[in-house]
Amino acid sequence: MGRPVPLRFDRGSLRLETVRAARVPPYLVWDSRVGAWRTEALNYLRIREEAPAYQLSIADKAPQFFQCPALAPSLPPLRPDQRAAVDAWERAGCRGVVVKPTGTGKTEIALSIIARHRTSALIVVPLRDLMYQWQRRIRQGLGVEAGILGDGRREVWPLTVTTYDSAYIHMKEIGNRYRLVVYDEAHHLPAPTLRESALDCLAPMRLGLTATPWRADGLDRLLEQLIGPVVFQERISDVRGRTLANYTIIRVPIYLTEDEQEEVHALSRRIRAYIARRRSEASPEAAAETGRVQGHNRAAAGGQGPAFDWTRDLVRHARTDPEAGAVLRAYRRKLSIVNRAAEKLRVVEDILRLHPDDQVVIFTASNRMALEVSARFLIPALTAHSDKRERNAILDLFAQGKIRALVACQVLNEGWDAPAVKVGVVLGGEKGTKEAVQRIGRLLRRTGDRTARLYEVVVQDSPEVSRARRRARTDAYQGAPRLSLDEARQVDLF
Q1: 372 and 447 in one domain?
Q2: Do 365 and 303 share a structural domain?
Q3: Based on the structure, what is the number of domains in the chain?
Q4: 477 and 355, same structural domain?
Q5: Longest dimension (CA), the chain
Q6: Domain residues for 273?
Q7: What is the CATH number of the domain that holds 51?
Q8: Residues 229 and 329 in one domain
């Protein structure tokens, strides 16, 4: 080997300062602007390990890791499953994804790793509320204060918590300061912009935490490149009744009123007529090119006829064609009728009466439905429009037992713990099985021997039926008894 060649961190990339004629790994590219080889910071560990094979002696100037502060850990002993997850991650070279259900102690796993390895760490989370929640957990479990990077604060400390969006903005500056990076709710990371933060970070130790690693777009396959392989996986059925509470899923089928059904039929006829006309106007070649219609497209078209690409063709035409715009509004109105079916409010009233002494969380598919439930039953509503102060005040009162019930549209799927809540009501949802698993996890943190109950209110003869069937095929649903409301009454579940 020749003289050592410098390896430097340069705004999210690594710069290997050797001549162009040098033998280098194939993932490095020559940057003529600076006369050096360049690659993503993600490849830091890889280039260090592979350098000898290319007769390269590295003068490593890339990392500028913070020293870990003096910790005063007061963490509970790890359970066997948590210890197994830590051991598996360490055997994999301190890189990988731990998949465990919500409520099974993923945060404790990360904190124990920080304490065990005495390392600087950057924790990346999807929500601002989660950022402050992690800060509190670090203070309580490790006895030190963590910095906050985001929400108007810029505290780049040896232990720092940030959001995915802030990590994307700042990683080019701080990507060489942390030996360990922890991605909470790691399924967010493969998104096209968010993944840049992992590429710009040279942390040799990487930990991903999630209950739902899969993504509808298939990009979960990138997690192995960005963090590492799945090193430990546990299903809800593995821990039901042990780490998590026992739970029962109660089906409540309902039907649209005559007026609602009449309007849905009229809207469907309008949609079908438009699709049929567009299809007849298209050439065979153009019709073939649009590909197969997806399930929700068939539902919009009344379940008949060959392909019409709803998501591409109709939305594209709606930008310039008033008729297409009207049909798109008709489709959305049809969904709104199902999401806000009048019978759903009656069912909520019955469930609240069945559980007079229990706290209840109600999940809706739309903000309007959440506000209708809120107005009808005089309970707080949380939506994407709720500001941070309002949200925190409501959740604090709920945690103290001063609020009996609350209704939320999607905002409680992640980043919220409620151990005392054992009754959930699902009035609708559009995001599929991931959302279902997250919602069940909100109810399953074990407190005593109480059984959690999740009510699924499903409009019959609507797209909600197929979504309910998809949820039923998930591990979370297969691991629990599924009863009708009458069956639940017969076995005295209330």
Answers
A1: yes
A2: no
A3: 4
A4: yes
A5: 84
A6: 258-338
A7: 3.40.1170.30
A8: no
CA distance 72 to 295: 54
Question: Does any domain span residue 477?
Answer: yes
Q: Are residues 294 and 347 in the same domain?
A: no
Q: Which of 338, 367, 383 is the C-terminal boundary of a domain?
A: 338
144 and 271 co-located in one domain: no
For the record, the structure tokens of 145 come out as 């204060």
- pLDDT (tens, 9 = 90+) of the chain, 494 residues, equals 678 999 999 999 999 999 999 999 999 999 999 999 999 999 999 999 999 999 999 999 999 999 999 999 999 999 999 999 999 999 999 999 999 987 788 999 999 999 999 999 999 999 888 899 899 999 999 999 999 999 999 999 999 999 999 999 999 999 999 999 999 999 999 999 999 999 999 999 999 999 889 888 899 999 999 999 999 999 877 776 666 667 788 889 999 999 999 999 999 999 989 888 887 776 454 444 444 433 444 444 444 444 556 667 788 888 888 998 999 999 999 999 999 999 999 999 999 999 998 999 998 888 999 999 999 999 999 987 888 788 889 988 988 889 999 998 877 656 566 656 788 898 876 555 556 566 666 565 555 556 788 898 999 988 888 888 877 777 666 656 656 666 555 544 44
